[in-house]
Design a protein that fits this description.
Blueprint: H1 2-8, E1 22-26, E2 33-41, E3 44-53, H2 56-69, H3 74-77, H4 82-88, H5 97-116, E4 128-132, H6 137-148, E5 152-159, H7 175-187, E6 192-196, H8 198-214, H9 221-240
Parallel strand pairs: 4-5, 5-6
Antiparallel strand pairs: 1-2, 2-3
Helix pairs in contact: 1-2, 2-5, 4-5, 8-9
């Protein structure tokens, strides 16, 4: 009955349609699209909404996400997995599971948009630690060590590149790498946030690298990435999260 309830009486459908803190997942490749928006006040999600195109499962999953996150602390919402969305719908078949994955991804993109904009404000906690999580062994070990030491760990992944014309989708900091890092953080019981810095990365790193290369010099893009993109974003987020 959970699925039918969300399908016939969707929560938050069309709410916050023009709100800036939103995320979308899906599109032309699969025919289904879910967009989730969140309005954050301090450390909580005061309001959420969604829109969906495609199959009924996408619409039901968007509704389930709204019900799961509304009025909850942001860091609790940052732990929500596709499995949680599926469970809220009474369990989805393998054929419909993609809808839960799309809705969860859209939610986390919305949370990241709010965090990137500085809309999130948590009380400072000297034991809250922000870990930049790539999905690899080193960052996972760092997160585990901090957790074992008694810290309240929040994982964050920076999405820096996505270009369908290249193999960039499978590279470090691509959308696929982000979902992999998020899944790992959730398996470790950690809240996870995604910061979409693709426009900034292209402007500050890629375009400058290409210009320098064309001018006959050999620029080091990693220096610019760490100094002008990664660390600034991480420090700003840490301040917002009181970490």
């Amino acid at each position: 009955m959970h699925f039918e309830d969300h399908l016939t009486s969707p929560r938050g459908l069309g709410v916050l349609a023009d709100w800036p803190h939103a995320g979308a997942a899906g599109g032309a490749a699969c025919g289904d699209l879910v967009r989730v928006s969140v309005r954050v006040e301090g450390d909580r999600i005061a309001e959420a909404g969604f829109d969906a195109e495609g199959c009924g499962a996408a619409r039901a999953a968007g509704s389930a996400v709204v019900e799961l996150v509304e009025h909850r602390p942001l860091l609790e919402a940052a732990r929500i997995t596709p499995e949680d969305v599926s469970a809220a719908l009474g369990g989805l078949s393998s054929a419909k599971r993609h809808a839960a994955e799309l809705a969860a991804d859209a939610l986390h993109r919305a949370l990241g948009a709010a965090a990137k904009a500085g809309a999130v404000r948590l009380a400072p906690n000297p034991r809250r630690t922000l870990v930049a999580m790539s999905g690899g062994v080193d960052s996972a070990a760092a997160a585990q060590l901090a957790t074992d030491a008694g810290d309240e760990v929040v994982a964050v992944t920076l999405e820096l590149w996505s270009d369908p014309a290249t193999d960039g989708e499978r590279s470090c900091c691509s959308p696929q790498a982000v979902t992999g890092a998020r899944a790992l953080a959730h398996r470790m019981g950690l809240p996870h946030l995604t910061l979409d810095l693709r426009e900034r990365f292209r402007a500050e790193v890629v375009d400058r690298f290409v210009d320098g290369y064309a001018a006959g010099v050999t620029p080091n893009p990693c220096v610019r990435c760490n100094g002008a993109v990664r660390f600034d974003a991480m420090l700003a987020l840490a301040a917002s999260l009181g970490a």
